[in-house]
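Show me a record, fold above all:
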Amino acid sequence: MLGLDTNILVRYYISDETDSSTIQQRESARRLIESGEPLAVCKTVVLELEWVLRGYYGISRQDVVATLRHLLSLPHVKFEDRRAIERAIDNHDSGLDFADALHHASYSECTRVASFDDRGFARQSEKLKLQPKVQVPRLGGV
């Protein structure tokens, strides 16, 4: 099994051919991913892929979700903590920041999650009625 780095996936999904090296990398990534060879993708690569697609390339949430779901649909690709990634994608599609969604999904065995991100993570997860509940610790108290 071959583990994939984020840049392989970016080259596979993004067509920004600006020079011959980039074009060759895209073709190499395509051959590799479409070969059917058993491949592996870890959670951190999925997290980084979302960030690159959104943050660097400016791809919309809807298109990022579609890209991540396509990647998950490839039968020869194994994912670290697939269930957490699937839940994170669903919660991201519902409005939660992807990094927060992946963190939350990774804490599925916890009873609560603590975060100082009241406006984002805590409020959004409450709005979505996610479990475990995200709570903001009290300030200045024990």
Remarks:
- The longest strand covers residues 39-41.
